[in-house]
Write a structure and sequence with these properties.
Strand order of the largest sheet: 6-7-5-8-9-10
Number of strands: 14
Bound molecules: guanosine-5'-triphosphate, magnesium ion
Number of helices: 16
Distance between the termini: 49 Å
Strand content: 15-25%
Order of helices and strands: EHEHEHEHHHHEHEEHHEHEHEHEHEEHEH
Oligomer: single chain
CATH topology of the largest domain: Rossmann fold
CATH architecture of the largest domain: 3-Layer(aba) Sandwich
CATH superfamily of the largest domain: P-loop containing nucleotide triphosphate hydrolases
């Protein structure tokens, strides 16, 4: 399938890139290397060529250039020799540092955040996804406008820049971007209102909801496809899924449940993106149960698990009880690590979304967790309020209903959140059974 592009991505395919990571002490070297490896995958996903990757040890933080001036000079030589079009840093730098480095290197300088934003821009498909990523990009670009201009100026023609930028033109641009941000925020509000209505509808019908979360490329979409009739795109690449897909899932206890696949996480996920995707992520936050899909075949599995936890923390749901699905157990490394990790977590199962192994166990665990997020209640609705019955039928599943001596008796299953509003009508099971037995028959299941 040809990828749609939103047109904002700023990394042109085919660029020759030098990847750099700056560390402050030697212990960070290994994580830095792993992280650079991942950055290289991100750059490949954009069609870039990685010419060289290097970890730089810099003791003190250099505020003007992010790296020392001497180091910058040496690197400038490498860049020229290797004919690099672009230098990519593995961490986010300030707009001023980027500007200074571009001057020193005489080529484009971007950071990991920009690369991730670019990938998101390429992969967004739905209206909401496209609006969200445009918002993140504009917020990221606003303080970097001066650099963008310098860069465009350096390029020779062909991109519609008339004359030098000048402060005035930059002001015009800044205002335009701000106006566009306001417009997008308004559009997003409308899209979200619609989504919220859908969500409320599902809740009203008593659907339990589970969300598949996890590191990008962990196998979330493969698992969703394996558990439901979904036909979500699966690919060995980062950030293939950006939009949420919701599907019905058949659970062993027949609890009506929906399961969703959504955007993946990554180490150093840009804050602008978390902010822009907050609405998507809010849905995740409201789920009854989270299933954390883990790529157990990956050597950095523990780092990936921690990175996911960090994002959950940032969303304020770090303490949510989560089922861990240790995926890719069909591979030798996956089998070994899935078993080891499953022993370390209370709610964990080794699975293979690809072969289907372990999926019945996962479904059983899911059903169990969802059941405990729902509660069975016994209600007595006074005859004078009989009209309440209709609402109860939409807010939960009515397991049994009949007429008692002093009101309508209902045995229901409802989400905790929903059941609060019927607390006044709640009676104990003993009272329910007594009242039920006072009236002959008439109970319908
Ligand atoms: N061997 C093996 N590969 C798997 C398994 N599950 C998924 N994969 C592969 O892992 C890659 C990523 O799978 P996806 O389902 O696209 O992963 P995702 O978590 O949805 O990724 P993003 O949407 O990009 O965040 C694909 O190449 C899948 O074929 C599994 O159980 N075993
Ligand atoms: Mg996916």
């Amino acid at each position: 399938m040809k990828e749609k592009t939103t047109g904002w991505a700023t990394t042109p395919p085919g660029e020759r890139c030098l990847l750099l990571s700056v560390i402050r002490n030697k212990d960070d070297e290994w994580p830095a290397n792993d992280s650079l490896q991942e950055l290289a995958r991100l750059v490949h996903a954009l069609g870039g060529t990685v010419v060289q990757q290097q970890v730089l040890k810099q003791r003190a933080v250099q505020s003007s250039h992010y790296i020392g001036k001497g180091t910058a000079e040496i690197l400038a030589g490498v860049i020229q020799e290797q004919q690099c079009d672009c230098v990519i840093f593995d961490d986010e730098m300030t707009p001023a540092q980027g500007r200074n480095l571009e001057a020193a290197f005489n080529c484009r300088v971007v950071d990991r955040t920009q690369v991730i934003l670019d990938i998101f821009a390429r992969h967004a498909k739905t209206r909401e996804g496209i609006l969200q990523i445009e918002l993140a990009l504009l917020n990221y670009q606003l303080p970097r406008l001066r650099r963008l201009w310098t860069h465009l100026e350096r390029q020779t023609g062909g991109i519609g820049i008339r004359g030098g930028p000048g402060e005035k033109q930059m002001e015009v641009d800044r205002r335009r971007i701000k106006e566009r941000i306001t417009r997008i925020q308004k559009d997003l509000k409308d899209v979200r209102r619609h989504r919220q209505e859908l969500r409320r509808g599902r809740k009203r019908h008593g659907w339990a909801t589970a969300y598949l979360i996890g590191y990008t490329n962990a196998g979330k979409s493969t698992l969703l496809n394996a558990l439901t009739e979904a036909d979500v795109e699966v690919k060995d690449a980062l950030f293939v899924t950006l939009d949420t897909t919701v599907r019905k899932v058949e659970l062993p206890n027949q609890l009506p449940a929906l399961i969703s696949d959504t955007v993946g996480f990554i180490n150093k996920l840009p804050h602008h993106l978390i902010e822009a995707f907050r609405a998507t992520l809010e849905e995740v936050m409201e789920a009854d149960v989270l299933v954390h899909v883990v790529d157990a075949s990956c050597e950095q599995v523990e780092e990936q698990i921690s990175a996911v936890h960090r994002v959950l923390d940032e969303l304020g749901i770090g303490d949510r009880q989560t089922i861990m699905a240790m995926n890719k157990m069909d591979t030798p490394m996956g089998a070994m690590q899935a078993e080891r990790l499953s022993k370390m977590h209370r709610l964990a199962v080794p699975i293979s979304a690809k072969t289907g192994e372990g999926l019945p166990n996962l479904l059983a665990l899911l059903a169990d967790q969802l059941r405990s997020s729902f509660r069975e209640r016994y209600l007595r609705i006074p005859f004078a309020e009989a009209q309440k019955q209709a609402a109860i039928h939409t807010h939960g599943t009515v397991l049994e209903q009949g007429t008692g001596p002093s009101g309508i008796l209902m045995h229901v299953r409802m989400q905790e959140a929903m059941s609060g509003r019927y607390a006044a009508y709640e009676i104990t099971q003993t009272v329910y059974d007594e009242e039920k037995s006072k009236v002959d028959g008439e109970y319908n299941a």
